[in-house]
Design goal:
The chain is an alpha/beta fold. It has two domains: 174 residues, Rossmann fold (3-Layer(aba) Sandwich); 206 residues, CoaB-like (Rossmann fold), CATH 3.40.50. Helices cover 34% and strands 24% of the residues. It contains 13 helices and 21 strands. It has an eight-stranded mixed beta sheet with strand order 12-11-8-13-16-17-19-20, with helices on both faces. Bound molecules: cytidine-5'-triphosphate (CTP). The site of cytidine-5'-triphosphate has 14 residues, from helix 11 and strand 16.
């Protein structure tokens, strides 16, 4: 049902399993998608464009320049006018190019210009798949929000057994459905805050906390994937700046976080405040490095602005999600924050999730409905939080 009436670019690269792309094209057409097939030059060595265009019910495109003549379709139309781009099979070569932004043919140019989900179904020898360079390319692509189906394990065309087979076409269809289904934040303007803040004591010292920014970055990328316009306001973090269509604002202190939030809040429809904003800052910030002279040094701290509380007070139609980091009475304290800051949802967690790949959270809404999630990777928690937001907004 989801695939019906969708425009899907089907990119085919040069691997033995290219013949399975014919079946994939057939299934996509059967599900009533418009399939726009693109083949690389080396794919022509494995299957004929005539077979693919017959099954896809559209002509095959291959060259970067052939599209402009007599046709309105360009690589930009293909990249942005489609709902989804599937690359099946995806060789180590295309993954390497996509991960470094190389665009030296039509398919890689479409991938580079894409503003829609790109789903790779890798297919290669198991040793190639295990090659650290390929592993790092795949990890990079995943971290940038590219989707993957497979590869599967089993007998390979080269005679080896292992991980590298093209995923079964039914699995690729399922992954395509999944990629299309999650457009449920289209039209939303999502503001996400992430990371810690740093409150200067002097030019080289500061008060901060252990937040890595991972949860917020995962939320921003997930919201983007699901079709939202995203602004990510981030305190200092070592994470790479998310690519794609995300407005990125880097801040240092709680005051800068507050100022940036005040700027973007009015036009936002959903706010997820996952930053670990400092509650206190030094009253005095020394202009020069403090020398080790006095036996005792007292740093007096004063309260910072509570950004979320400000947002709760000014709330019009915005959907407000806060986090609550608690070492004791998790649910009770989180509920208190939900009420006091006028939130729609609170995500409670313990400090174990700070600076970690995994997190274990409890999601509580205004009706006091509580969902305790198991320990999950932060990417998955981000999806679950957004699922709850979408469900509550549409209820
Ligand atoms: N928050 C904020 N501005 C601050 C402090 C916190 O916007 N100056 C936000 C956080 O981003 C989070 C929520 O408020 O979404 C709760 O933060 P947390 O540190 O758990 O609680 P506090 O409100 O600071 O209360 P306490 O430290 O007493 O637990």
């Amino acid at each position: 049902m989801i695939i019906r009436d969708k425009k899907i670019v089907l990119g085919v690269t040069g691997a033995i399993s290219a013949y399975k792309a014919l079946e994939l094209a057939r299934l996509l057409v059967k599900a009533e998608a418009t399939v726009l097939p693109v083949m690389t030059r080396s794919a022509h060595e494995f299957i004929s464009p005539l077979s693919l265009s017959t099954l896809a019910k559209n002509p095959v495109s291959t060259g970067l320049f052939e599209l402009t003549e007599g046709s309105k379709i360009s690589h930009i139309d293909l990249a942005q006018g489609a709902d989804l781009i599937i690359v099946a099979p995806a060789t180590a070569n295309v993954l390497g190019k996509a991960s470094t932004g190389v665009c030296d043919d039509l398919l890689t140019t479409i991938i580079a210009a894409a503003t829609v989900p790109v789903l790779f179904a890798p297919s290669m020898n198991c040793h190639m798949w295990e090659n650290p360079v390929v592993r790092s390319n795949v990890a990079k692509l995943k971290s940038l929000g590219y989707l993957f189906a497979g590869p599967a394990e089993g007998e390979l065309a080269c005679g080896y057994e292992g991980l590298g087979r093209l995923a079964p076409v039914e699995d690729i269809m399922e992954a395509a459905e999944e990629a299309l289904r999650r457009k449920d934040l289209k039209g939303e303007k999502v503001l996400v805050t992430a990371g810690p803040t740093r409150e200067a004591i002097d030019p080289v010292r500061y008060v901060s906390n252990a937040s890595s920014g991972r949860m917020g970055y995962a939320l921003a990328k997930a919201a983007r994937r699901r079709g939202a316009e995203v602004v990510l306001i981030s305190g200092p973090s070592h994470l790479p700046r998310p690519s794609g269509n995300i407005t990125f604002v880097r801040v240092e202190s709680a005051q800068e976080m507050y100022d940036a939030c005040v700027t973007y809040y009015p036009q936002s429809t959903i706010v997820v405040m996952s930053a670990a904003v400092a509650d206190y800052r030094p009253v005095k910030s020394y202009p020069a490095k403090v020398k080790k002279e006095a036996e005792m040094l007292t740093v007096e701290l004063e309260r910072t602005q509570d950004v979320l509380k400000y947002m709760g007070k000014k709330k019009k139609d915005q959907f407000l999600v806060g986090f609550a980091l608690e070492t004791e009475n998790l649910e009770e304290n989180a509920r208190k924050k939900l009420k006091e800051k006028n939130l729609d949802l609170v995500v409670a967690n313990s400090p174990a999730g700070l600076d970690s790949e995994l997190n274990q959270v409890t999601i509580i809404n205004r009706e006091n409905e509580t969902e305790v999630l198991p320990a999950l990777p932060k990417d998955e928690i981000a999806e679950r939080i957004l699922d709850t937001v979408v469900n509550m907004k549409s209820a």
